Amino acid sequence: MKRIILLAGLLFFAAEGYSQGSTDYGSGLKVNFNEDGSKYMRFIAWNQIWFRSSEMNPGTMIADEPATTNTDIGNRRLRMLAYAQISKRYMIVTHFGINNQTFTSPTGSTKKPGMFFHDAWNEYAVVLPEAGKKFSLSLGGGLHYYMGLSRMTMASTLNFLTIDAPIFNWPLIDNADQFARQVGLFAKGKYGKFEYRMSINKPFATNTAPVDVTNADNAVAVDNSGNTRWSKAGYFEYQFLEQESNLLPYKVGSYLGTKKVFNLGAGFYTAPDATRTSVNGVVQKHDMKLFSADAFLDLPLGAKEKKMALTAYSVLYDYDFGPNYLRNIGIMNVGAADPSFTGDRALAGAGNTQPMIGTGTIWYTQAGFLLPCKAEKPVVRIQPFGAYTYKKFEALEKSSSQFDIGANFFLDGHHAKITTQYSTRPVYIAKDNIDGMRGDFLVQLQIYL
Fold first, then answer.
1. Using CA atoms, how far apart are residues 239 and 247, in angstroms rounded to an integer?
2. Among 159, 166, 203, 342, which one is least packed by beta carbons within 10 Å?
3. Nearest in space to 17 (alpha carbons), one of 428, 410, 440, 403
4. Which helix (H) or strand (E) holds 4?
C-alpha cells in the first residue's frame, strides 16, 4: 500500500499538464474503401489493467487461507470493437473480448477466461442525419447496448471520469442481460437538440428459485423470468450546448474540455413478470420497473490557453424489482466464505462484495477538474475527481453513503492514462447495522487505440 501511495504522490506532484488526446491517432485504426472515407471499417482495441490493495469483508478466505486484506493485479477489460459502413445507410457493429481476469476466484482458477461478443448488431438509417435536417432515424437489431435508462447505462468504457462505472448503472448485469446487453430491436435518432433511443428486447431467462416464507412482508423477490416476456427501454436527452455524436451508443464520460456539453436526460426499463416471490407455497410474479433522471456537464473553464475543464454528472435511480429484492456484487471478487470464521459476517458475503442493486433509490454524483497546463508541451495532464453514492434499499433498514476519490494522469488523453482511486463500501452485519467501511485502493493503466 505504501508503494502504491508513493507512486500516486509522485505522479500527482511531479506531473505537468498535457493536451487532450493526440493528433497521432487521427481517425484511429481505420481502413478506407473510397477516397473520401465514407466507406470504411474501423477497429478499436483497449486494455485496462488493475493493481489493487483491498480490505476484505469479515469472514473472507482466499485460496483456503483466512484473509483480511489482499493485493493483486488483473485485467479488468481486454476488448476489441469493429464496425463498418460501406453505405451511409448500412452499418454493422461487433464488439468482443474478456473481462475480470484475476489470479483466483471464489470458485477457483480464472485462467483462460472465455472470450465472447458484447455487441453484435445490424443498423439501417431510415432518415440520414444530414446537414440542414433536424430529424434523423436509424433502426437496428441484434445484441445491442441501446438499453435506455440512463446516460451511464450506455457509458463508454474508454473514457470514464472515475476508474470505472459504479455498476448499479447496469441493473441487470449478467442476469437478464449479457454484460449489459440484450437481444432485440432499437430505434435511435435526433430532432434538433433532442436525442432519443428506444428498444424492445427479449431478456435472457433467469431461474433463481424464490425462498418460501409464511409472512408476505418477508418475501424476497429473485430473478426468475421463465419464458421471458419482451422488455422495453428508452432514454431521452436534451443537449443544450454542443451536440454529441450518436453514431455508436457509447456515451462519453469526460471530454476533457474539448466540447461544451450540458445535457438533461431521463430513461426507463420495464420487463413484465421478471422476478418471483413465494408465500406459503404460492408463487407470485413481479414486473421490473426501473427509472432514472440525470444531468451531464463538460465545459472548458478559464483562459483558453490554460485548457482547464470541469466535468460533472449526477443521476437518480428509482428501482423496483419486486419486494425486498437485493443483489450483492464485488468487482473482480477473489474472496470466498471462511467456514472457520466465528465473528460477525458481512451480509453481502465474502471478499469485496457489497449491496449493489435492489428495490429502492440510488443517487450518484461525480465531478472532476482538469488542472491547467504549465508548459507549451507538457508531459502529463492531471484530472482530480470525486464521487458520492447514496443507497436506500427496501431490503435494508439503514441507508448507506460511500465515496470514491482519485485522479487521472493523462499521458496521451484517454488513449494512454494512469488512474488512481480510493473507494469505500459499507459492511452490513445486520439489516440495521453497518459495521463501518472497508476500502479499496486501485491503480489502472489504460491503453486504447
1. 16
2. 342
3. 410
4. helix 2-14
**pLDDT digit string, tens, across residues 310-344:** 999 999 999 999 999 999 999 999 999 999 999 99
In a 10 Å sphere around its CB, with 0-12 CB exposed, 13-18 middle and 19+ buried, how is residue 209 labelled?
Answer: exposed
Q: Which amino acid is at 308?
A: M
Cβ density class 41-54: b for 16+ within 10 Å, e for less: eeebebbbbbbbbb
Identity of residue 98: I
Question: What are the phi and psi torsion angles at 304 (to 5°)?
Answer: -60, -35
Which residues neighbour 13 within 8 Å (Cβ) at sequence distance 6 or greater? none
Cα separation, 173 vs 181, in Å, equals 8
Give the distance from CA 243 to its chain's centroid.
22
Contact 155, 166 (CB under 8 A): no
Cell numbers placing 202: 427479449
pLDDT of 109: 74
Contacts of residue 25, defined as CB under 8 A and 6 or more positions apart, other chains included, come to: 415, 449
Which helix (H) or strand (E) is 6 found in, with range? helix 2-14
Q: Are 414 and 444 contacting, i.e. CB atoms less than 8 angstroms apart?
A: no
The CATH number assigned to the domain holding 8 equals: 2.40.160.10
- Picking from 325, 390, 343, the residue whose alpha carbon sits closest to that of residue 56 is 343
Strand segments, DSSP code E, in 128-170 are: 135-144
Q: How far is CA 318 from CA 33, 84, 150, 171, 313, in A?
A: 47, 37, 11, 11, 17
Query: What is 34-58 written as a DSSP string?
Result: STTSSSEEEEEEEEEEEEEEEEPPT
- Contact between 443 and 50 under an 8 Å Cβ cutoff? The reply is yes
Percent of the chain with pLDDT over 90: 86
d(CA 309, CA 11): 20
Q: To which residue does cell 435511435 refer? A: 188
Mode of pairing for the β-strands spanning 354-358 and 326-329: antiparallel
Contact 425, 437 (CB under 8 A): yes
Q: For 339-361, what is each residue's pLDDT tens digit?
A: 999 999 999 999 999 999 999 99
Q: How many domains does the structure of the chain reveal?
A: 1
Q: How far is CA 79 from the centre of its chain?
A: 15
Phi/psi at 217 (5° precision): -65, -20
Distance CA 67, CA 55 (A): 9
Any bridge partners for residue 414, and if so which?
A: 412
Rounded CA gap, 442 and 74, in Å?
Answer: 11
For 2-11, 17-26, 69-78, 81-90, which range has the lowest pLDDT when averaged over its residues?
Answer: 2-11
Q: Which of 113-117, 152-156, 157-161, 319-323 has the lowest mean pLDDT?
A: 113-117
